[in-house]
Design brief:
This protein is mainly β. The chain has two helices and 15 strands.
């Protein structure tokens, strides 16, 4: 939580600096109000196909549903060939993102571990948030979820040829884009219905499950194309991104923390449609996005009630994967405003 607060503060300072720098340099700008719907999954997995020092040949998987509405606003400043945008979005409060799932499994000869899912240098993509397949659950918990999220991003674009960043222009062409994206979310999993393959088999409620805090920082770099005619603009873009994650997974029943640090590649695809209302200096925007993030790293444990859990605190880091697969629709109303041009002597 301290990490997320520290980075959030830095992002706010960075945004204020951008505004103060670009306000006198950029001729015009816009502000937009955003409403959106997100659908997808965020999965935390760890395991080993071959026996470790404890003789265990298995792992665990926690699937966090990411089905929710959110809102926010965006500022844009543009001049000549450059565009700078800053966006803030949030769910506003704790919401129900859908039911989640906590699985513990064993692995056998047919089990697979798909650690590398996206390798742009080899033009390969395995479009799944799951790492381990061919597993058999010995414990399976289905839970209700409560989640809150907020985040922001800042992008800079450069337009080539006849294309311009003015949203009311009718010029077309390519643009290059780079930026930074930040997001923090926290889940509570509760009302857990648990299956345990024991003797006898147990199936029933166990109450509170876990809490999960996640901080994400991404650095996207990409290309897009702006196609404009009359009052309509269409803008597809693709970004390759490098992601860094920090997560804390606290299991209430075991009083055990899993502290994770991961990094890896991903991508962000956008397809946006604009309808211009020049008489009102306004636009309507509807956009589709697809976001993928495939990261790997390690986690350490802290706390615990049983001897094995407490001993795990001193066994170093365990390999894990944190993957996100989601898509959504954004709708926005955009209003143009005019800045005073920079005065020159």
């Amino acid at each position: 939580m301290f990490y997320s607060f520290k980075f959030k503060t830095k992002l706010q300072i960075f945004s204020v600096l951008l505004i103060s720098i670009f306000h006198p340099l950029f001729a015009d700008g816009y502000v937009s109000i955003i409403g959106a719907r997100n659908q997808g999954d965020h999965i935390f997995e760890s395991g080993n196909k071959y026996p470790n020092l404890s003789g265990i040949k298995g792992g665990s998987r926690i699937t966090y549903a990411r089905n929710f509405n959110y809102g926010g606003f965006q500022l844009g400043f543009y001049h000549n060939k450059f565009l700078v945008t800053m966006k803030y979005t949030t769910t506003g409060w704790y919401i129900n993102p859908g039911d989640s799932r906590d699985e513990d499994f064993v692995m056998g000869s047919i089990s697979t571990e798909k650690g590398t899912k996206f390798a742009p240098e080899r033009f390969t993509l395995y479009d799944t948030a799951h790492t381990y397949t061919g597993t058999v659950n010995f414990a399976d918990g289905h839970t209700r979820s409560s989640m809150k999220e907020y985040g922001g991003d800042a992008f800079m674009r450069y337009y080539f040829g006849k294309a311009t960043p003015d949203p009311f222009s009718i010029n077309s062409g390519f643009f290059a884009s780079l930026g930074v994206r930040y997001k923090f979310f926290k889940y509570y999993l509760y009302d857990v219905i648990q299956f345990i393959d024991s003797k006898p088999v147990y199936y029933g409620p166990i109450g509170l499950g876990l809490s999960y805090s996640h901080t994400m920082v991404e650095f996207p770099l990409g290309l897009g194309y702006l196609f404009s005619f009359k009052n309509i603009s269409i803008e597809p873009s693709v970004h390759i991104l490098y992601a860094y994650n920090k997560a804390r997974d606290f299991h209430y029943q075991r009083a055990l923390n899993f502290l994770s640090s991961n990094s890896g590649l991903g991508f962000l695809v956008n397809f946006e449609f604009f309808y211009k209302l020049p008489q009102y200096d306004s636009l309507f925007r509807i956009g589709y996005y697809a976001h993928r993030q495939f990261t790997r790293g390690g986690f350490t444990t802290k706390g615990g009630l049983t001897l094995n859990d407490m001993l795990s605190n001193y066994q170093g880091a365990f390999r894990d994967y944190i993957d996100t697969k989601e898509a959504g629709i954004e709708v926005a109303y955009i209003k143009k405003f005019y800045l005073e041009p920079k005065k020159t002597e």
